[in-house]
Specification:
RNA_MeTrfase_FtsJ_dom, 29% strand, 2 domains, methyltransferase, 334 residues, alpha/beta, elongated, VC0802-like, Rossmann fold, SAM-dependent_MTases_sf, nine-stranded mixed beta sheet, seven-stranded mixed beta sheet
């Protein structure tokens, strides 16, 4: 398989894959090729953004030759298939290689033209975009590792990560993370649902929920800014996130938490009481791993004894497109 990730985190991707039985045999900026691994469905993985199944290596010197080989590979594998609706047609390239993107665009355009000549109806149904959300889909996926070599796959898994559009009223870039996290969970706050945003300042996550009509309690001693400031949907509590407690018998529909704190301290002293006592129904939590071993922290989160395993379901742990040295955990209480 080939797994892709955010550039700069390739070693962590390779390390995570190794813990799940995959054997990394080659890697570059933002990608790892593996052998072995589970024979059934993929485990829930944090760092991969896309995983290509059974990739076939294609090598050639020119754009024309690469496009011809990719076209023939697709036609040979698709000759017995029925295409009844839109299907993914995705070309991507390894990061940090100047000029490779232009070459890939040239190959992609030529493959499109080839398919229009050979399978015009099928070509019209091709969609050059990733699916929105977590999905495993059949299509045409081409990943270039350099100017002369690409891998072609017909089946891919997507972890839900994707680049999000900014909002000029959002008080911080963290707004992008919560917008992306909704896609990974497959749900977002609804109208009149309640949200406890712990460590809210400057208010990017609270602002995101307010746009959907939710009612937010933003807990932070710091000020709210931008679209979160004086927002009638947001009640700002000047309190410590670690000591804030819901009112008796109050259960929030959502709990948000993005704190610049040691992750085990956050899990033990904030997340654990919220989940064990059922103070929320769903959660989006970020844990910072800049000063701890990220893979050891992942093991702790996924441990059968962790508060997440004991109290929650539908858990997904992801290194988001907009995450830095952190990962995001989404889920629901059992």
């Amino acid at each position: 398989m080939i797994f892709t990730c955010q550039p700069g985190f390739t070693d962590l991707l390779a390390g995570e894959l190794s813990t799940h039985g995959f054997s990394p045999v080659e890697q570059g900026a933002g990608w790892v090729r593996t052998e072995g691994g589970p024979k059934t469905e993929l485990p829930d993985l944090c760092f991969p953004q896309m995983a290509l199944f059974d990739p076939v290596e294609i090598a050639a010197d020119s754009v024309n030759a690469l496009a011809a080989k990719i076209t023939e590979q697709f036609l040979a594998s698709a000759k017995t298939e029925r295409f009844e609706g839109e299907w993914p047609f995705l070309f991507e390239e390894a990061a940090e290689m100047d000029g490779l993107g232009r070459r890939v665009k040239g190959v992609e355009k030529m493959v499109q033209e080839n398919l229009k000549k050979r399978m015009s109806r099928v070509a019209r149904l091709a969609v050059a975009d990733k699916p929105r959300g977590v999905a495993q889909l059949r299509g045409l996926y081409v990943f270039f590792v350099d100017f002369k070599r690409a891998y072609v796959s017909r089946e891919a898994f997507f972890g839900g990560q994707r680049r999000m559009a900014d909002d000029e009223q959002a008080p911080s870039r963290s707004y992008l993370k919560i917008e992306e996290a909704y896609i990974v969970l497959g749900r977002e706050p609804g109208f009149e649902e309640t949200v406890a945003d712990l460590g809210a300042a400057p208010g990017g996550w609270s602002y995101s929920a307010s746009k959907r009509g939710a009612k937010i309690v933003a807990v932070d001693n710091g000020p709210l800014k931008g679209g979160a400031y004086n927002n009638y949907k947001i009640e700002h509590r000047m309190e410590d996130a670690f000591t804030f407690r819901p009112a008796p018998d109050q259960v929030f529909d959502w709990m948000f938490c993005d704190l610049v704190e040691e992750p085990h301290h956050v899990m033990e002293n904030l997340i654990q009481p919220w989940l064990e006592r059922g103070w929320c129904r769903r959660f989006v939590i970020i844990l910072k791993f800049g000063r701890v071993d990220p893979l050891a922290l992942l093991r702790d989160v996924r441990s059968p004894d962790s508060v997440f395993s004991r109290c929650a379901t539908n858990i997904r742990v992801r290194h988001l497109y907009h995450d830095r040295e952190e990962f995001t955990i989404v889920g629901e209480l059992k």
